[in-house]
Specification:
Number of helices: 7
Helix content: 40-55%
Order of helices and strands: HEEEEHEHHEHEEHH
Shape: globular
Bound molecules: zinc ion
Strand content: 5-15%
CATH topology: L-fuculose-1-phosphate Aldolase
Number of strands: 8
CATH architecture: 3-Layer(aba) Sandwich
CATH class: Alpha Beta
Length: 215
């Protein structure tokens, strides 16, 4: 994909954040690693998604300098940069304020593995990153720590973040996390959700990855 095509993709998925109810207003942010791996593109700060044009997308290097663009990049640029630096396998990051995952994050509890499919997608439960103020280096550090080698993390009293090899996968992980969070919340209404044991999680994570999908 060319840089222009990636900018279009970021805009398209930004609008989908609103359409799918994963964010409202100017909440959340999206970034994609440059194909040359010398930086990343990120959504601008405080512009409603439907109003964002390709010129508004900011290109930054991994030291935090703006390489291209006149807009102020997302307030969470430190967090995106820290993840790209820590995780060479991650090419796209979607940060949301999705309602139900945020409800779990408001309890500052980790998201336990209560569904087989969750284990297949995320490889086990997800951590809730320690609280720090929006846009700070501390939040960036906590989120990298909470994410570990998974593709999802909760942000205490704030929201969620998913990563992926592509923007499509990162966005899909956010949608899947939200659907799972709904199941988790409802399970609490019905009774006490049973958390899958570590032995089952390890077996399922390995086994399902082999058995599921097209060969
Ligand atoms: Zn946020």
């Amino acid at each position: 994909m060319t840089k222009d095509q990636i900018k279009q993709e970021i805009i398209r998925y930004g609008n989908m954040l609103i359409e799918k109810g994963l964010c409202t207003g100017t909440g959340g942010n999206i970034s994609v690693r440059l194909p040359e791996n010398n930086g990343f593109m990120i959504t601008p700060s405080g512009i409603p998604y439907p109003a964002i044009t390709p010129e508004d997308i900011v290109v930054m290097d991994f030291d935090g300098n703006i390489i291209e663009g006149k807009r102020t990049p997302s307030i969470e640029r430190n967090m995106h940069r820290a993840i790209f630096n820590a995780r060479p396998d991650v090419n796209a990051i979607v940060h949301t304020h999705q309602n139900l995952a945020s409800a779990v994050a408001a309890t500052r509890q980790d998201f336990p593995p209560i569904l087989d499919a969750f284990v297949a997608v995320f490889g086990g439960g997800l951590k809730c990153a320690k609280y720090a103020s929006i846009g700070t280096e501390d939040l960036a550090k906590n989120v990298v720590e909470g994410l570990g080698n998974r593709n999802g993390v909760l942000l205490a009293n704030h929201g969620a973040l998913c990563t992926g090899k592509t923007l499509d996968l990162a966005f899909g992980n956010c949608e899947f996390l939200e659907a799972s969070a709904m199941t988790y919340c409802f399970a609490h209404i019905i009774g006490k959700p049973v958390v899958l044991g570590q032995d089952v999680v390890e077996k399922e994570a390995k086994d399902l990855a082999k058995r599921y999908g097209q060969r």
